[in-house]
Amino acid sequence: MYQLNLSELTLEEFLRDYWQKKPVILRQGFKNFVDPIDADELAGLACEEEVESRLVYQKNGQWQAEFGPFEHYEHLGESNWSLVVQALDHWSEEAAQLIEPFRFIPHWRLDDLMASFATVGGSVGPHIDLYDVFICQGSGKRRWRVGDRGDHQQFSAHEALLHVKPFTAIIDEELTAGDIIYIPPGYPHEGITLENSMSFSVGFRTTSTVNLYSGLADHLIDNELGEELIEDPHRMPTQHSGEISKDDYQLIKNQLTQLLDNDDLVRQFIGCFMTKAKHELALVALEEPLTPDDISEILSTNTLMRLGGVRAFYFEESLKQGLCYIDGNEYQFSPEIYEAIQLVCDHVCLTPRLLSPWHSDRHFLHFITQQINAGYWYFSE
Ligand code: SIN
Ligand code: CO
Fold this sequence. Notes:
By secondary structure, the protein is an alpha+beta fold. It has three domains: 11-204, Cupin (Jelly Rolls), CATH 2.60.120; 208-233 and 242-261, no CATH class; 292-379, 3-Layer(aba) Sandwich (Malonyl-Coenzyme A Acyl Carrier Protein, domain 2), CATH 3.40.366. It has helices at 11-17, 39-45, 93-96, 209-222, 246-261, 263-275, 292-299, 316-319, 338-346, 362-374; strands at 24-26, 53-59, 62-67, 81-85, 110-118, 132-137, 141-147, 154-158, 161-164, 169-176, 180-183, 189-195, 197-204, 304-306, 312-313, 323-326, 329-332, 349-350, 377-379. The strands form five sheets. An eight-stranded antiparallel sheet has the order 1-11-6-13-5-4-2-3, with helices on one face. Strands 10-7-12 form a three-stranded antiparallel sheet, with no helix packed on it. Strands 18-14-19 form a three-stranded antiparallel sheet. Succinic acid binds at residues 82, 116, 118, 124, 129, 133, 135, 189, 191, 199, 201.
């Protein structure tokens, strides 16, 4: 279990003074840090088809990026390259543990855990991210330079690498195992590897207005919603057939706002939209499905784990009506088990003790059997 240590800072102070505002180094944010996965294991994962990975290095002064899966790394030599693996939390239960200390930020804001192995001199180059990120230094040593927010010029150093022109550093420090650097969106930064290094970045996502509206439009289409037509049975004759009058503008705008005033619909959309995984899940449905009775028995002895990367959320307002959202879908359950569903959405690791009131509850067993058989939850050994 990783435990976040903010020294003198409380979580409230961190959120008040730094979150989304300014970068900060959290020295020994993880005391006695041990890499959850080593460089060889990471390199092995990057050979798998389903795992998103890339190599970044410079050749004759030109930035290069290659996308996995990789067959070997021999051409790269001993220095000046980085291997980056996206969504490591989907593929490694040990690495996924690194996300847990950051649950003081709600999970809908989370993106994924990215890992990088970099050899001496390796870097992905100076760049700006749109996301908040906690970069946790594992073994090795890296120097991090962070510049201030501002009008920075970005350019494509390679078709897959958007870089930023040289910047003046407001942070320029070396990080060793257990140190964490938090960088909010918009701050240019670069990590330069001083000793072969592992780092683990817990990234948070947000979403733009255009993304939300486009997601909402998809949701309406997929669910055949919002098909009501604008109606105007009380129309009066007009002198200006080319005009969209004030009243008509209001009529059309009301059609848009009425939809957004429908909280049930908007919650359903947000629940489905925010639980969609951005990266592939290691989802495998059980070949031999378990019955509710099997599950009841195993729940009393084994810990139930959520598959890495699976997003499960609820709204306070609709939880008690029996609604929750998992991996892009809305699920209905008996309102009697809302406390159990809350546990299932709030915790990734569900011990027999945590679920003890629900081991034999037929409504809960019905719900969780579906989820386990689909591969979203599994029993740890
Ligand atoms: C890296 O770990 O090499 C890059 C992380 C980042 O800058 O976001
Ligand atoms: Co970055």
